[in-house]
Design the sequence.
């Protein structure tokens, strides 16, 4: 008969999180191997807590505050999302049709998005945002506790290893950003490089990115 | 200091008292740097990551609302930054190089009574064994053993269910034990 694996219960007992501590204690008292294992786990924990703690430089907090002041002194980007919500509304039907034609949400490959070689510059009166419409929508839903995931872009295509173009690079950044923050309860915080990258996208590029994200999103 | 005290400081920052944020930094600088250092195994990188974590909290301070604990928010950000760093530096899998391990070993004091030397050796082995764990295992053990977080707090930090934390910590402990056995620090 297979012996019961007590690893999880022993570990939880040590942390005061066992569901049935009396039962685990009884098993430990009746089994020398379990007692030895529990003792080893206890010693490992003691040893970890005895690891030397770093001496923090007295100026660390000052450095942090100086860094904050430096950021605050720089001109802050305006982050209104209204323009992109409107843009998303106008383009939604066409984008959805295009996504469906290209395989929909289960498509394993990166959808082909045709862009002009040199897209005409689009004059945008409204301030640019660090997010596109879909990124904003995903962020909002994540922050409300909904689980949303993106497919990881494939490293290889049918033709071999893909040379990442701008869209793949941007997608990877968005993917990394949302993947790390998507499963946590913390606010979605964008780093500077991400904000800069989004700010550099023109309207056509944003539309292409939204299309790509739409096709790679789960639970939407 | 209680979590309520932390949120009181946050509220003061929201009201324009930047000094209150410096107090928060001083309160958490050592545990956050320690956590990052054990995650990425670099003191210098750990300080940079900790600084970035504090800056991110500050930049979003207006959005923050009192949660269970301020520390879970802070460690959640630090944890994400550390994982990001490991990914970017290609060290997401099993830990660092043996050359760095040897540096850690060499840095441990070797003088003094025998029991101190043995303890020092054991700590060096623990460091090596920790660095051999996957980041998933390492982070839960660090949050539990170094930060003393309960399973609910760890679940919040890493964004998973409490049951997952429970099983992951158990697997991490067992893996750490096996790594120590492999390193000769424990009897098989």
Sequence:
């Amino acid at each position: 008969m297979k012996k019961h694996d007590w690893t999880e219960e022993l570990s939880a007992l040590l942390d005061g999180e066992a569901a049935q501590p009396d039962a685990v204690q009884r098993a430990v008292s009746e089994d020398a191997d379990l007692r030895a294992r529990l003792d080893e786990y206890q010693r490992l924990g003691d040893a970890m807590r005895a690891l030397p703690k770093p001496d923090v430089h007295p100026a660390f907090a000052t450095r942090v505050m100086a860094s904050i002041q430096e950021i605050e002194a720089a001109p802050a980007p305006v982050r209104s999302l209204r323009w992109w919500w409107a843009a998303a509304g106008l383009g939604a039907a066409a984008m959805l049709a295009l996504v469906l034609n290209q395989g929909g949400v289960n498509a394993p490959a990166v959808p082909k998005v045709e862009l002009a070689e040199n897209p005409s510059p689009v004059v945008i009166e409204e301030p640019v945002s660090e997010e596109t419409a879909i990124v904003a929508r995903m962020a909002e839903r994540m922050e409300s506790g909904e689980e949303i995931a993106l497919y990881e872009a494939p490293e290889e295509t049918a033709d071999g290893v893909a040379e990442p173009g701008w869209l793949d690079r941007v997608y990877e950044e968005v993917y990394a950003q949302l993947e790390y923050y998507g499963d946590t309860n913390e606010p979605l915080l964008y780093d500077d490089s991400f904000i800069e990258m989004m700010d550099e996208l023109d309207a056509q590029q944003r539309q292409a990115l939204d299309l790509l994200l739409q096709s790679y999103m789960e639970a939407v | 200091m209680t979590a309520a005290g932390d949120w009181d400081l946050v509220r003061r920052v929201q009201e324009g008292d930047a000094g209150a944020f410096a107090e928060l930094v001083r309160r958490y600088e050592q545990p956050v740097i320690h956590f990052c250092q054990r995650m990425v195994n670099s003191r210098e990188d750990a300080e940079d990551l900790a600084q970035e974590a504090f800056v991110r909290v500050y930049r979003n301070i207006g959005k923050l609302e009192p949660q269970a604990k301020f520390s879970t928010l802070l460690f959640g950000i630090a944890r994400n930054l550390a994982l990001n760093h490991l990914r970017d530096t290609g060290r997401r899998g099993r830990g660092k190089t043996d050359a760095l391990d040897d540096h850690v070993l060499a840095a441990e004091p070797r003088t003094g009574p025998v029991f101190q030397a043995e303890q020092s050796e054991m700590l060096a082995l623990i460091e090596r064994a920790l660095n051999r764990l996957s980041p998933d295992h390492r982070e839960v053990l660090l949050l539990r053993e170094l930060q003393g977080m309960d399973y609910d707090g760890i679940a919040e930090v890493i964004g998973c269910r409490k049951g997952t934390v429970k099983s992951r910590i158990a697997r991490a402990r067992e893996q750490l034990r096996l790594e120590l056995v492999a390193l000769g620090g424990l009897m098989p």
